[in-house]
C-alpha cells in the first residue's frame, strides 16, 4: 500500500515544526524569566548587596576598634576596645554565613570565586587579630613606663637625697672632697640607669635591648663601687645616711629588673607594628574583595533588570 505524496510531505513538515517548536521552547526557557522568578532573583541580589555593605562597615569597625585597643593607655580601655573589635568581627562572620546561603540559593557569575578569595583573606585577618588583641590588652610597655615613672622615680630620689645629706654632713671636713666625689659619681650612675629605662621601654630590637641592659649593668657596678668606697671612709655618725642610700639603690635595682622584664615582652610595640603594618595591608585586601563582590552584584542586578 502506498501513501499519497502530499501525505508524506505533510508528515515531514509536521516533524520539522515539532523540532522547531522544541528549540524555541528551549531558548525561551533559558532567556525568559517569569515575573515571579525575576522578582525572587532581584530580591536575592538586593539582599546580597545589603549584606556585603554591612560586612564592609563591620570590617572597618573591627579594624578601628583594634587600633583603639592597641593605642589605649589602660588595661580597662584596651579590653573594652578589644571586645568591641571582636564583636564587629563576629558580625562579619554572621553576615558571611547569610551571604553564602544566598549564593548557594542563586549563585551568580564570579560569586563563588570571590567568596573563596574573601574566605582566605578573612581567615588570615582573624588569626592576626587574635595575636594583636592578646598583645594589646597586656600593655607591658605601658606598665613598664608607669613602674619606672612612679616607683623608679621615688626610689632614685630617695637615693639621691640620702647621698646629698651625706655630702652636707661632711662639708668643711678633711674628707669633704672624697665624699663629694664618690657621692656625685654614685648619683650620676644611678640617674643614667633611670634614663636608660625609657630607652629600653621604647626599643623594639632584642639586640639593642641587650646593649642597653649591658649599659645598665655597667652603671650599676659603678654605683656599687662608689657606695663601697664611701663605706670605707664615713664615720659612725653618717652610717645611717649611707645605709639609707644603699637601701634606696637596692629597691631601685629591684624596680629596674621588673621594668626590663615587662619591657622585654614588648606587647605594645609588637601589637602596634602588626596593627600599622601587616594588619593594615590584609584588611585592605579583604575590603577590596568585598568591593569587587559588591560591584559584581550590582552588575548582575543591572543585567537582570534589562532582560
Summarize, please.
The protein is mainly α and 307 residues long. The protein contains 10 helices and no strands.
Descriptive report:
The protein is mostly helical and 307 residues long. 88% of the residues lie in helices and 0% in strands. It has 2 domains: 47-137 and 277-305, Four Helix Bundle (Hemerythrin (Met), subunit A) (Up-down Bundle); 140-266, Up-down Bundle (de novo design (two linked rop proteins)). It has helices at 5-31, 35-71, 75-105, 111-136, 140-169, 176-202, 206-233, 239-265, 267-276, 278-305. Helix 2 packs parallel to helix 4 (111-136) and helix 6 (176-202) packs parallel to helix 8 (239-265). The longest helix has 37 residues, at 35-71. It is rod-shaped and about 100 Å long. The protein starts with a helix and ends with a helix. The relative contact order is 0.13.
- Beta-strand residue percentage: under 5%
Q: Helix count, per DSSP? A: 10
Rg, nearest Å: 38 Å
The best one-word shape is rod-shaped
| Average pLDDT level | 87
Helix/strand structural class: mainly alpha
Largest sheet: number of strands, sense, barrel closure? none
Cα end-to-end separation: 54 Å
CATH structural architecture of the largest domain: Up-down Bundle
What do we call the CATH topology of the largest domain? Answer: de novo design (two linked rop proteins)
The level-1 CATH class of the largest domain: Mainly Alpha
Order of helices and strands: HHHHHHHHHH
Number of domains: 2
Amino acid at each position: 500500500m502506498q501513501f499519497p505524496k502530499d501525505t508524506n510531505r505533510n508528515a515531514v513538515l509536521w516533524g520539522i515544526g515539532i523540532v522547531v517548536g522544541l528549540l524555541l521552547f528551549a531558548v525561551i526557557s533559558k532567556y525568559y524569566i517569569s515575573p515571579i522568578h525575576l522578582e525572587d532573583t532581584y530580591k536575592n541580589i538586593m539582599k546580597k548587596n545589603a549584606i556585603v555593605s554591612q560586612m564592609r562597615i563591620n570590617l572597618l569597625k573591627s579594624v578601628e576598634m583594634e587600633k583603639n585597643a592597641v593605642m589605649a593607655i589602660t588595661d580597662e580601655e584596651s579590653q573594652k576596645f578589644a571586645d568591641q573589635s571582636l564583636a564587629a568581627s563576629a558580625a562579619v562572620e554572621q553576615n558571611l554565613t547569610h551571604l553564602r546561603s544566598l549564593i548557594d540559593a542563586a549563585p551568580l557569575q564570579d560569586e563563588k570565586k570571590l567568596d573563596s578569595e574573601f574566605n582566605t583573606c578573612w581567615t588570615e585577618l582573624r588569626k592576626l587579630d587574635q595575636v594583636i588583641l592578646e598583645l594589646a590588652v597586656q600593655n607591658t610597655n605601658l606598665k613598664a613606663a608607669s613602674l619606672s615613672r612612679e616607683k623608679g622615680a621615688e626610689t632614685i630620689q630617695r637615693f639621691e637625697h640620702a647621698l646629698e645629706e651625706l655630702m652636707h654632713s661632711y662639708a668643711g671636713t678633711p674628707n669633704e672632697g672624697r665624699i663629694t666625689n664618690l657621692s656625685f659619681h654614685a648619683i650620676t650612675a644611678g640617674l643614667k640607669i633611670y634614663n636608660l629605662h625609657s630607652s629600653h621601654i621604647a626599643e623594639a630590637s632584642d639586640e639593642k635591648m641587650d646593649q642597653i641592659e649591658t649599659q645598665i649593668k655597667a652603671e650599676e657596678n659603678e654605683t656599687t663601687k662608689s657606695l663601697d668606697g664611701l663605706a670605707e671612709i664615713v664615720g659612725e655618725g653618717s652610717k645611717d645616711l649611707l645605709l639609707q642610700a644603699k637601701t634606696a639603690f637596692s629597691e631601685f635595682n629591684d624596680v629596674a629588673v621588673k621594668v626590663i622584664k615587662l619591657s622585654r615582652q614588648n606587647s605594645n610595640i609588637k601589637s602596634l607594628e602588626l596593627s600599622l603594618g601587616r594588619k593594615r595591608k590584609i584588611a585592605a585586601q579583604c575590603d577590596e574583595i568585598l568591593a569587587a563582590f559588591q560591584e559584581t552584584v550590582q552588575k548582575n542586578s543591572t543585567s537582570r533588570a534589562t532582560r
